[in-house]
Amino acid sequence: WRIPAFVAKDRALPGDVLTSSLPRLPVSIETLKSLISSDDRLQLARDVDSLCNNKVELLGQHWPDGASCDWSLDPVSGQHWPWHRYTFNIPRRIGQGVGDVKFVWELSRLQHLQVLALGARLLDRQDARNQCLQQLENWLDDNPPYTGLGYACGIELASRVVSMLFIVTCLDGSTIPASLVEKIWTALAVHGRWIARFPSLYSSANNHLVAEAAALVVLGTVAPQLTESADWRSIGKRRLDVECGRQVLADGAGAEQSPTYLAYTLEWLLLTRVVGQDEAMPAIDAALRRGAMFITSVADVHGNVPFFGDCDDGVVLRPVLRDANYLASIVTGVAGVLQSDEIAHPAFRPDLRALLLAGRPAPATKVALQSAVFEAGGYTVLRSGDGARETYVLFDHGPLGFAHTAAHGHADALAVWLHIDGIPVLVDFGTYRYNADSGWRDWARNTAAHNTIELDGESQSETTGPFNWGRRAQGFLLAVKIGTAVQRCSAGHNGYKDLLGVIHERTVTLDQSDSIIIADVLSGESTHAVNSSFHLSPDATAELLPGNKVQIRLHDALQLELTFDCPGLQCNVVSQNEELKPGPGAVSRAYNHLTPAQSIVISGHIDLPYHSTVTIRRTSIR
Q1: Are strands 549-554 and 558-565 parallel, antiparallel or unpaired?
Q2: Is 66 helix (H, G, I), strand (E, B) or coil?
């Protein structure tokens, strides 16, 4: 495929295909005109204005003005990737390129052109239409098949297939110039062939494989003119049937141990189901239902889902540049397509994506939020309260991640997340970036960045690369009691057993007064250095008080008190300024986004066996 003659043959299509009508997605754009809210319309108009002025922001990063067609530019460093080379000959790992390869990939997904296309249709914006087609043709001309980084990873091609189909659907393919029609047909064909030729394997055989399989089904369904379409449909459906059981666990949790990657997988399955229309897809329907219900079940009273594991802000359909609540969008889309009242969270509202896919709102929900245990995924939700007043705790006692690489998992066994009245209090660090800075990547995944215990400066699981793990902690559930006045979950992990001869067990209790009691037991021998971390949301502030207490305030309205009984240990509140570096005192709430925050770190040296207790309770609400 480095040989021009082979590539020329690969991109050749019969003349009757090149002149036939372009394929479209069966999404309900006309219906959307009557369903779109005024807020969504205003957001779409703002995004279209920005893009028509050649201002692009993706993954929280601004591209230089006028650089919207500079496909090889790294917007952070200002340098260019080597572009017109065979795709697999371009080094792109950490330390090999000019920055995080996700930025050039994100622009080349052409999802910002989806926004322009939808704006052209819904807002009757001719300038958006012209800009969209001009940039699409520019990409097709500047990225010939199998050169440049746009062809280096199957999930990027899968994303671009959907973008091209969505653009044609919005803009009415019959009005697109014939020369561009030929280029789009050729691009769709070579994309399908490349995806089928090089399926994701090893560390990428996760959501990447789902994306590729779904793209083959979608393209094979809507473009029967292509000779391979029937094969693509067959291959893609067979793979999806397998992956539905592997990547969406029996209790609905995502095998990748990340709610956002679960939602991303569900969006691909949902698009496949919409394109399949009345065709029977029982494996996909079942995976959609249980995955969406899991997301609803781990959301707090206001619909906020704690971030755990990796998050890269990936989507399939991008009606606006920035989602208000991506997980809510997918869950309400599933509820709308399946027309089920047992799926969506009461606080979730359908957005443009959900309405596009379903063509109608979901039925009024009958879901009642309650405590729940997810043994396959390894999570327990404890909640109490009435109405908007809720004490919510998420406790992680699950595996590290999916398959042999656990690519998107974090070393967060026995971590806790705490939300009070729908406001996040205890969070973990997040993701920040994947490929540009190994220091941040290591910090984000290791134990100290999560609300659990680190021993002797060692992570409970050992990173061996940006998406690989060596030694792994395995969580295990010991006992659980929910739905009673005093709720409790006990679990442990063995991450330090072989390394240090230590087993960590933790019991989390939510009592009648809404106090959260976290009791830790470290079993083993000898003396060890311990760090027990509690990372606060950037919206919270902490102050160390006398008597082993920390006062936590949120929005000047909610006040909590953390009391610790940790013999021999000292407590510090760690803060960072704007010059952030890997370590406590910072949070990444979105990809490529860092915010100063505070961390409560209880540390020192202990002799094993060791017992400690931390209690968090409300002290006032104004």
Answers
A1: antiparallel
A2: coil
Q: Read out DSSP for 179-222?
A: HHHHHHHHHHHHHHHHHHHS---GGGTTHHHHHHHHHHHHHHHH
State the number of CA atoms in the 13 A half-sphere of 391 facing the CB. 19
Asked if 594 and 490 count as a contact pair (C-beta separation under 8 A), the reply is no
User: What separation in angstroms does the CA of 35 have from each of 238, 327, 463?
Assistant: 35, 20, 47
Contact, 335 vs 132, CB < 8 A?
no
Residue type, 331: V
The H or E element containing residue 274 is helix 259-276
Q: Which residue from 226, 282, 291 is spatially nearest to 261, judged by alpha carbons?
A: 291
What does the pLDDT look like over 304-329, one tens digit per residue? 999 999 999 999 999 999 998 999 99
Q: Residue 180 corresponds to which tokens in the numbers above?
A: 């561009």
* Per-residue model confidence as pLDDT tens digits over 378-412: 999 999 998 889 999 999 999 999 988 899 999 99
Question: Mind spelling out the 3-state secondary structure of 129-179?
Answer: HHHHHHHHHHHHHHCCCCECHHHCCHHHHHHHHHHHHHHHHHHCHHHCCHH
Q: What does the pLDDT read at residue 30?
A: 84
Scan for tokens 């006398």, then name that residue: 546
The whole-number pLDDT of residue 621 equals: 59
> Which residues of the chain have a pLDDT value below 70?
436, 621-622
Specify the DSSP element, H or E, that contains 286.
helix 282-297
